[in-house]
Write a structure and sequence with these properties.
With 303 residues, this protein is α+β, with helices and mostly antiparallel strands. It folds into two domains: 3-133, Metal Transport, Frataxin, Chain A, CATH 3.30.920; 143-301. The protein is built from seven helices and 14 strands. The protein is globular, with a radius of gyration of 19 Å. 37% of the residues are buried. It holds the Pfam family DUF5996. InterPro entries: DUF5996 (IPR046038).
Length: 303
Amino acid sequence: MSTQNNGWPVLNFDEIEDTLATLHQWIQIVGKIRLKTMPWQNHSWHVPLYVSPKGFTTNPIPYDGRVFQIDFDFKKHQLSIECSNAGSVTMELYPRTVADFYQELFEKLAELKIHVKIHAKPNEIEPAIPFAENTTNKAYDKDAAQAIWKAMLKANEVFNTFRSDFIGKASPVHLFWGAFDLAVTRFSGNNAPLHQGGMPNMPLDVMQEAYSKEVSSAGFWPGSKDFPYPAFYAYAYPSDALFGSQKVAPEEAFWSAEMGEFFLKYEDVQKSSEPDKVLLTFLQSTYEAAANTSKWNREDLEK
């Protein structure tokens, strides 16, 4: 795996696919631990992970008068758990089954006297094999893991820059472990119609609360077998009938009627002479397409 253009790594889906599938299961396990222990926040903002200087992190989690944090470290290829009053433990990241990772992680938590019971099956994934039984996903290539993280790191930087230009309600830049996507969301302040759901293994009431307000959302997704291209996306909920016909930039961006979203392939950003600028153009133009067609009060929401 190579890196160019100010740190934007090359991402070839065929090279990262197997590692991505394993990591997706691993981050679901860690994410569910955060989900069960964090105080609830609106739109499920207590659920995601975050991009860190060395990998992915839960950020500090309050637990029984203490605080602990779980970190994926893709420099040392370790998972660490640090507790405010009980030191820290680590486990190695290497080609190992989801079942093996799951078992050792909860053994390490028990060493720190952290006892959490999670729903031990993945969400938004088919088939939803219980973690303790999953011996299918077991690939871990160090270069692939680093490339996925470094791409998230670069996207995270641009997303935070984009977020700063909005003075209305906006989400932090979240790493949602359900679909393994990095996302940032802007809110108009208006209520949204009741969401009808549709994600596999995702409770309807969770989807409905997450989309209870009108949004314009964008993110980065490293791809899947059905769409084997890492890509940036942008959508609106609810979406005006004219949203998909709006002109957006750069010229490589395209509308998917099937998905109801705009897409820009990661490689079109990574190969450009100014990746950050190209991505910002996509984020801004798709936001304007959503805000204008849905008639947001932009004067009160933007600098």
